[in-house]
Amino acid sequence: MALSLEEVRRIATLARLRLTPDEEQRFAVQLSAILDHVEQLKALDVTGVEPMTHALAAGEIPALRDDVTVPGLGPDEALAAAPAREGTAFKVPRIIE
């Protein structure tokens, strides 16, 4: 399903995005490819397949990485690029009167 540039512009407006003409062209192609893929998925026979509420089946354990502790940044290294600092903290403008 090929999207027109007008449809891409409408989608961009609804998403409050400002696109350049080059981006409009690129997104028209990309969004059309996504819609074509969804159409292919619609053609699959899923009779007998139970709906799922989660990507993992019930009781399935996700493959997670091991928790590994690593040393954190020290205050001087963490605040090295801060525009302003006070002691070991970022200093920000006061906004409450």
From TrEMBL:
<comment type="subunit">
    <text>Heterotrimer of A, B and C subunits.</text>
</comment>
<dbReference type="InterPro" id="IPR036113">
    <property type="entry name" value="Asp/Glu-ADT_sf_sub_c"/>
</dbReference>
<comment type="similarity">
    <text>Belongs to the GatC family.</text>
</comment>
<keyword id="KW-0648">Protein biosynthesis</keyword>
<keyword id="KW-0067">ATP-binding</keyword>
<keyword id="KW-0436">Ligase</keyword>
<dbReference type="InterPro" id="IPR003837">
    <property type="entry name" value="GatC"/>
</dbReference>
<protein>
    <recommendedName>
        <fullName>Aspartyl/glutamyl-tRNA(Asn/Gln) amidotransferase subunit C</fullName>
        <ecNumber>6.3.5.-</ecNumber>
    </recommendedName>
</protein>
<keyword id="KW-0547">Nucleotide-binding</keyword>
<dbReference type="Pfam" id="PF02686">
    <property type="entry name" value="GatC"/>
</dbReference>
<comment type="function">
    <text>Allows the formation of correctly charged Asn-tRNA(Asn) or Gln-tRNA(Gln) through the transamidation of misacylated Asp-tRNA(Asn) or Glu-tRNA(Gln) in organisms which lack either or both of asparaginyl-tRNA or glutaminyl-tRNA synthetases. The reaction takes place in the presence of glutamine and ATP through an activated phospho-Asp-tRNA(Asn) or phospho-Glu-tRNA(Gln).</text>
</comment>
